[in-house]
Amino acid sequence: MASSLSYSPVAFVGASASDLLRSSSNGISGIPLRTLGRARLGARRRDFAVVAKIRKGKKHEYPWPDNADPDVKGGILSHLSHFKPLKDKPKPVTLEFERPLVDLEKKIIDVRKMANETGLDFSDQIISLENKYQQALKDLYTHLTPIQRVNIARHPNRPTFLDHVFSITEKFVELHGDRGGYDDPAIVTGVGTIDGRRYMFMGHQKGRNTKENIQRNFGMPTPHGYRKALRMMYYADHHGFPIVTFIDTPGAFADLKSEELGQGEAIAHNLRTMFGLKVPIVSIVIGEGGSGGALAIGCANKLLMLENAVFYVASPEACAAILWKTAKAAPKAAERLKITASELCKLQIADGIIPEPLGGAHADPSWTSKQIKKAINESMDELMKMDTPELLKHRMLKFRKIGGFQEGLPVDPKKKVNMKKKEEPIRKTSDLNIEDEVKKLMQQRLDAKESSVMPPQSDLDEMINKLKREVDREFFEAVKTIGLKDRFVMLRGEFSKLNSEDHLVHPALKDKVEKLRDELNQGLPAAPNYESLKHKLDMLKELSKTKSLAEKNYKASTLKQEINKKFAEVLDRPDVQEKYRALKAEIENSGASMVQDLDHGLREKIVKVKKDIELELADALKSLDLDVEVVNSKVKKLSEQQTSFSDVKVKMQELNEEIKEGIENVIKSSDLKDKIELLKLEVAKAGKTPNTVSKNRIAALEQQIKQSLAAALDSSNLKEKHEKLKAEISKTIESSEGLDGSLEKQYAKEDDSTYAEPRVEIGVNRTFA
């Protein structure tokens, strides 16, 4: 834009300084009109141009589209909202504990890609991996630790307040401003309908990307946001709209400007006002609820929480920094603070848990929104039945009962279950004291052994229990110092649950245990108390060995007494004594002095009587739950055979160890391991009554596993060793002589040698030879 004005410069004669500075509505600023009039009469003229350029301003972006769709979900007024679908899909964010799931998902994608490229059928492998993924997903999200739930609640891709509101409402119109000149985007308010019923919605709004987070101040409201929420509370109370608040904030914004504008006063005003509102209020924690910033819109008749939401007075990091002087103790602080939905329901701070699908922020948010809608309807149906005084009293009592107690009254058993158990003080015993006590006890047992008077077993049991407690304490201290305590406690709880329910251990849980065991083996030597732990463990093993030996000796002595008693009862029986006396009389009447001089009939009679007595003795031993085998042989020959059999036994044990090691190495191969896992899944899927297809699959997998094992063992030299040992065993058996009932073989006398007496070996529930 440009304009020009022509004038002739003249001397402004007769004009005072005040005239020159005075403005006129009909002239140029600072120049009187009469002066301009005189100037036009001048003799000389020059052109003078005044040019003004207007800078282009930024066009205001209005949310209303050019072609508004009147049938849009939420009504045509929803076009006024600045909350639009994102043009770019948010980048996936994987939490640290979710990495194993991502690896499994990547394997499934790779196998499917390979199947598409090669045209081969990998359906069994895909099914196996998918089942493994689902089981791992279930195991992970049903055993989340408090700090893991905190990370899920803070996930950048977690659905926000407006995501849920637009999903559960038929119509929603956002209302802005605190009527003080400000509109805080960190708190969003508006009127919406669910199943035809109007509600006033308000909640913390986080951003879905960096740009929105900066705009929304990362969900941390200023005093203007709380005053906007307060205005909408009054509006809802005036029109009778029930209020639904959504909580998702790390806390109120704590900068200097917010404090100057009255952050604390704004929160306190909201708290006081919410207790006096005459309409039902339901608050839902959809993410993290931090301190007073969450409570400023959370004083409701009912407080509901999503399954993976958290509600705290101080963040775990802040609590850890205060109590333990480091933010790295945040997992421990999260556990102690009791901030999860389940813990808060036990403490009766939260009134209900809204379930979430497995997968956290990676799951479908629409399912969660449906559960939120269902919870709102159920809660409001209950609250709408109350009249105004009852509603206000209900809200007041909800907060009055939190943390209340009275001394001297018995504790309600239901509350007592949720109370923290009293921790017994750990009495740390000096290593030198324990070592002295162990040495003293061992010396007492040695002295008692020499005097044939054994000390009481209770002293040994007490010392073993004491050492066990010390070893457990040292072990937990070591596990704690290497940072594996939480995982160890979690796995121990899972195993206890499986043992109580008699369930099979899942392969995924076995993998966790093996991984933790490897980490423990690698990390324990680095623990400061490793030497003390090892020393106490060695002492415990020594005492346990002593106890086992003492018990074995005691059992053997008792059993020997019982056997002697049974033998005496059999031999003292009248019928046995009669047989013995009759046979002795016949031998004396025959006049023979050696076995060879006896006639054949008498020798056979002796053998028969001997066998009858052996059977009687065997029955007596069987009554003591003993298995018996009678062995007759020459002492010299028996000693030779024992040496031979012991050598063979050692070789058999060595071969068994090699075979076992070979099978374990084969099983560790990925191919065979996958087949075994697939077989387990097929058996579990088939159940007790498998169909023909399942039977065929199971049989085929078993055959493949057997063939793989056989092929791996054939390729080694184990088969050759087995054949060699087999031949050696056959040779040893052939060289040994068995019983044929001949009296000559049993009592044949050699030069100056005595008769070899029959020997009976016995054992508890075992066969002895």
TrEMBL record:
The keyword Transferase applies. Pathway: Lipid metabolism; malonyl-CoA biosynthesis; malonyl-CoA from acetyl-CoA: step 1/1. The keyword Metal-binding does not apply. Residues 621-665 form a coiled coil. Keywords: ATP-binding, Coiled coil, Fatty acid biosynthesis, Fatty acid metabolism, Lipid biosynthesis, Lipid metabolism, Nucleotide-binding, Transferase. Residues 128-382 form the CoA carboxyltransferase C-terminal domain. GO terms for biological process: fatty acid biosynthetic process. One of its GO terms (cellular component) is acetyl-CoA carboxylase complex. Its EC number is 2.1.3.15. GO terms for molecular function: acetyl-CoA carboxylase activity; ATP binding; carboxyl- or carbamoyltransferase activity. It catalyses: N(6)-carboxybiotinyl-L-lysyl-[protein] + acetyl-CoA = N(6)-biotinyl-L-lysyl-[protein] + malonyl-CoA. It holds the Pfam family ACCA. This is acetyl-CoA carboxytransferase.
